[in-house]
Design a protein that fits this description.
This protein is an alpha+beta fold and 128 residues long. It is built from one helix and four strands, in the order αββββ. The chain has a four-stranded antiparallel sheet, with no helix packed on it.
Length: 128
């Protein structure tokens, strides 16, 4: 806000800042933007805290106790290898020339899949 020489309006010294309607409009906008920013930050904070709480509650459900199961394999079979991935446990067994791959769920230790590989079957061309 500048005063020009020879202007008919009041000078800067005569106008109090709080009485000027333009400044009051700016203050109202500033209060509104501050309120919107604070509410946005509050909603973001609550969402982050709720996700942390959800994950804590969800992870404590699996910590109820150890699960004991027995994987039944044929007599004379031996375990060739085991592998653990984030979402499954893979156990490879071999018996009488046949290889079997067992896929287990790590939470419940139930078998979710089985693949038997037998020699001497019809072969397919290699995938290229």
């Amino acid at each position: 806000m500048t005063a020009q020489i020879g202007s008919q309006g009041p000078s800067l010294n005569e106008i109090a800042d709080d009485d000027d309607p333009r400044i009051q409009r700016v203050y109202r906008r500033l209060r509104m933007l501050t309120l919107i920013g604070a509410l946005t930050m509050g909603v973001g904070f609550l969402s982050v805290m709720s996700v942390i709480a959800y994950r804590l509650v969800k992870s404590s459900a699996h910590a109820a106790g150890p699960v004991a199961r027995t994987l039944s394999i044929p007599a004379g079979a031996k375990v060739v290898s085991t592998a653990v991935d984030g979402g499954r446990i893979v156990v490879t067994t071999e018996a009488e020339g046949r290889t079997t791959i067992h896929v287990l769920d790590p939470g419940s230790l139930t078998e979710t899949g089985r693949l038997e590989i037998a020699p001497g079957g019809p072969s397919s061309p290699p995938i290229r």
